[in-house]
Design goal:
Strand content: 25-35%
Radius of gyration: 29 Å
Low-confidence stretches: none
Largest sheet: 7 strands, mixed, barrel
Helix content: 10-25%
Number of domains: 5
Number of helices: 7
Shape: flat
């Protein structure tokens, strides 16, 4: 298939591997070929082959795999082994209530196929030349690297810790400069091969894959155990195995069985400052029962908790969590809707916890082009923001639009359970909550109940009626009618404006009012895929957040006559009811 003006689409697959910056046997590196007992040759710059781990200091080396066609880039570190690349873009679950999805939506996922071949190792092996002379071998006998093994076989033996490594897909056309090609950022999930056919397959996912339950949990799994039996009144315990006390913070909360205990620790001796804490009951415990450290979050913004989960427990690189941007978004639209004191008493998947935070009306989702995780609050358009127009006359590809209605997302009543009774019990069970906040539409024209239930641990033991009410009312306002779901294909010029969560105004002859006339639909994108042949596939859902919105101004901006035009556009000014209309012709804000 050819692209615009006959140009041939072309892809590059890049992988970042760590390689040590030390020189073998020099300075801080204490490795030595003189150790004939070990019979070890010089390392390959990787952690797996390192012989002096205390001195291991990595940098990043990038392997670029290109398609073997005329016009491919020819330079050091570029390998003509790429055979295919296929990606399924991420899909987000707006508001976290779509029953066909998960609270975190569907992760972006792709596969890349590669050939295998002989390789002299000159790019990845820092001592490739010395292996020829024998200077890199303990035996002193030289060899020819290109005659031994294959590229992938040797690379994966030297770099076995590839899960979670950064990789990128670049898409453009033959002849494009790789440095300027549009780039998507992912992490490696799995590598298969090389098999008997010489093929290798890499599975990659978006960067939130690092938070998957099998890869990242919070709190971390504790392996300390009590050395002897404890009765219900014991005030201390010795932990085993020896020195395991170093794995526990100096003070905090631990869980033994179904009991939570406040503690301090010195060495392996744990002193109990409160038994049967946090609403649990003091009881007996048997020797070798596990002592699990509990993660406690004090009241905080959802964005701050999400950042800590990703950075501390999913080990997400700091560069991929733009916290200042998250906090600005949160403080603009979600100020005051914080979590309450929350205890996580056993290891839970980070992705699961992020999905629960999402039910508070926020979203964590990948931006594969920027290589970061975004945070967005379900909120109206901001001042100066506009909907991006999509129409058959302007950019919709003919014959690609499809319309559905999300009947299973409609809500007539929303029941939000909060106020945790027992931190050691299931967080999914409605029986483990002491409060329920209900939002219900007054007059249901559908005459059929569509009741949704949510459980939310993040409002603590006491619950939070005000925050729960705000969350339920927002969700009800958005989903009291089944959302329209529109999918289609756009031109390549829409690649920039149309991204995940973009606000769109869709205009189509298929969108009709009762008179058969056109009726534009305001929507929010929940799936966007950029293909290699000048297409943008998208799916969007109705975006119904009605009303006029403004920010209550603080002194000295609260005086309308003295406010700037920008402040007047952004602000909500409290006045008496004689004002009638504002100078710009709009009516006043009304508070209920």
């Amino acid at each position: 298939m050819t692209g615009k003006l006959g140009r041939k689409p072309y892809s590059i697959f890049e992988i970042d591997f760590p390689r040590c910056t030390r020189t073998y046997g020099v300075g801080a590196c204490t490795a030595s070929l003189a150790d004939k007992v070990g019979r070890r040759d010089k390392c390959y710059g990787s952690r797996a082959t390192c012989q002096a781990l205390a001195a291991y200091l990595p940098e990043t080396i990038t392997h670029s795999y290109v398609m073997n066609v005329d016009g491919m880039p020819k330079r050091a570190g570029f390998f003509p082994m790429l055979k295919s690349v296929s990606t399924r873009a991420a899909e987000i679950n707006l508001s976290g209530i779509d029953p066909k999805s998960t609270p975190m939506g569907v992760r972006a996922r792709g596969t890349a196929g590669f050939a295998d071949a002989r390789d002299n190792g000159s790019w990845s092996d820092p001592y490739a030349a010395e292996r020829r002379t024998g200077a890199a071998q303990w035996s002193g006998v030289g060899r020819k690297p290109e005659e031994l093994g294959t590229h992938w076989g040797k690379l994966l033996a030297a770099q076995p810790y590839y899960v979670g490594q950064a990789c990128r897909v670049k898409r453009g056309y033959v002849g494009d400069d790789p440095a300027t090609m549009p780039t998507e950022h992912y992490v490696i999930s799995e590598i298969k091969g090389p098999g008997s056919s010489g093929s290798v397959t890499i599975t990659y996912k978006d960067i939130i894959d690092l938070a998957e339950s099998e890869k990242a949990v919070a709190p971390p799994v504790s392996i300390g155990k009590i050395l002897v039996d404890l009765d219900a009144t014991a005030t201390e315990a010795t932990l085993t195995p020896p020195d395991i006390g170093d794995d526990y913070p100096a003070a905090g909360i631990v869980r033994i069985g179904r009991e939570l205990i406040h503690y301090t620790i010195s060495g392996d001796v744990m002193t109990f400052t409160e038994r049967g804490a946090e609403g649990t009951e003091a009881t007996t415990h048997k020797a070798l029962d596990v002592v699990q450290w509990c993660l406690v979050y004090e009241p905080a913004r959802p964005c701050d908790i999400g950042a800590d989960l990703l950075l501390t427990y999913a080990k997400t690189p700091l560069s991929q969590v733009p916290l200042a941007e998250w906090q600005e978004e949160n403080d603009k639209w979600n100020a005051g809707l914080n979590t309450s004191r929350t205890i996580i008493s056993k290891p839970e998947g980070v992705k699961l916890l992020l999905g629960e935070l999402g039910q508070m009306g926020v979203m964590f989702y990948p931006d594969v082009e920027a290589g970061v995780i975004r945070y967005k609050v379900n909120a109206p358009l901001g001042i100066g923001e506009t909907y991006y127009d999509i129409s058959e006359a302007y950019n919709l590809r003919e014959g690609t639009i499809d319309i559905e209605r999300g009947e299973d997302q409609r809500i007539s009543a929303l029941m939000l359970y909060h106020g945790v009774i027992d931190w050691t019990d299931s967080m999914d069970s409605t029986r483990n909550y002491s409060k329920v906040t209900v939002a219900r539409i007054g007059d249901d024209p559908y005459e059929q109940d569509a009741i949704k239930e949510l459980t939310l641990r993040w409002y603590g033991r006491d619950g939070d009626d005000a925050s729960a009410s705000a969350v339920t009312e927002r969700l009800l306002g958005r989903y009291e009618n089944p959302p329209k779901i529109i999918s289609g294909e756009l031109d390549v010029k829409d690649r920039g404006p149309v991204k995940l969560t973009s606000r769109l105004r869709v205009i189509s002859e298929l969108l009709q009012d009762a008179n058969g006339g056109g009726e534009p639909e305001l929507m929010q994108a929940n799936y966007v895929e950029y293909t290699g042949d000048d297409r943008v596939k998208f799916r969007a859902e109705s975006d119904r957040i009605d009303g006029r919105f403004g920010f209550i101004m603080q002194d000295p901006q609260s005086d309308y006559d003295a406010a700037t035009d920008t402040e007047k556009a952004e602000g909500c000014f409290i006045m008496d009811d004689t004002i009638g209309v504002f100078p710009d012709g709009t009516g006043p804000y009304v508070f209920f």
